[in-house]
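Lab meeting minutes (informal)
Scribe: AK
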Amino acid sequence: MIRQRSDIARAQRIVVKIGSSLLAAGDAAGAADGGVQMARVQRFANEIAALHAHGKQVIVVSSGAVALGRVHLGWVSRKLSVHEKQAAAAIGQPSLMHAYKQAFAGHGIGVAQMLLTGDDLRNRRRYLNASNTGETLLSAGVVPIVNENDTVVVQEIKFGDNDNLGALVSLLLDADLLVIMTDVDALYDANPATTPDARRIGLVESLTPEILSMAGESGSSFGTGGMASKLKAARIATRGGVATAVVSGDKPGMLAALIRGDDVGTLFVCGGDRQSRRQHWIAEVLHPAGRIVVDAGAARAVVEHGASLLPVGVRAIEGAFDKGECVEIVAGDAVIARGLCNYSAEEMRRLAGVASEDIERLLGYRDFSSVVHRDNLVLLGSREGSKR
């Protein structure tokens, strides 16, 4: 696990996320090459190939399909509808993959396209299938090029942005390091564009409220993720044991410098509260289908003693969910945990406040004495509850 810069050199599996603004030409003049900044793609391929030569496995999470399609269609300056974004992605994705294929071919390295949606990772079987596909490609010496499947995606199943996708892929494929290459070279304590003496934050050991407040807005006309999204990605990845770095994609050699342990960009190191892959899947990937409101005693048992949630501590049920779906566990105004519920919402309304030995009498069967078993429960600290 990476806890300091000197540990980075030991990273064997690395996810490199490349932002749209680094790949797409800024206007339709670049459309002759499909809108791709080919010289830059070639530079990224050269740097990644150098890591390959040292025995490291690399996964590329690449934005750019929609941005490239916009350039090709002359839609750079207009706001696109959902269907126009999907059409732009359909045009841009082949250009993106062709560019990567050409760039890596000179190094004798093959590339493969992996297109994902949020639903692919929320379904446990599809999550494992995606993981197995990535593992097989890496074992074959191929560089997976991962992007959101923007040709079919809608808001309900979006990852949000490709910073978030990069974090999830780094956990899906059990990476050691996530590198977010962007048009901003690091996290600063103020906006360096407007504050000349802004200080670069080289190392972040914990994502405190003070650190989170340093995030600014995206300065890119193509990208959807500003520094706030990069901090969110860092939180997801580091909690899963994957260190995260934000470095400049504009400056040549930054990836190699980072891997050497040079003081470049911002490194977010791993803390001591690493989640398992299953915990990460429950806490960060699944969308809660409902809520279970619990009393103070149940909250203490779950948070302080690592206990399963029993029906006797349940006070109310919100939403409609089936057996096995993800739910939030709420105490007061705080969401204290997420977990997979052993009973449906309809059944839970009948079980609220009763002893475990009464489950069979009330339902006619009892598969579990708990409503959320501790093995399927992930604590969320002091995360605030959303509006009900």
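Next up, CB showed the second protein from the same session:
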Amino acid sequence: MKNVVKKYSNDDVTVIWDSKKCKHAAECVKNAPNVFRPKEQPWIKIEDGDTDEITGAIDKCPSGALSYVRR
């Protein structure tokens, strides 16, 4: 399987998703369902959450597939 790395940004934060690391634990979806929508394309709707909600959900990612950089 090809590794895909995608980045999603707003004014405060850049979210990075590394497909190779993703174990589909769905912690992101459970903790910020308005932002992380796996049935949609693109599946991360960064504009639909605030920075604390987004980073809080990412901090719970057990595989490290999701990370972020604050601006």
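CB comment: The chain is about 20% helix and 25% strand.
No objections, moving on.
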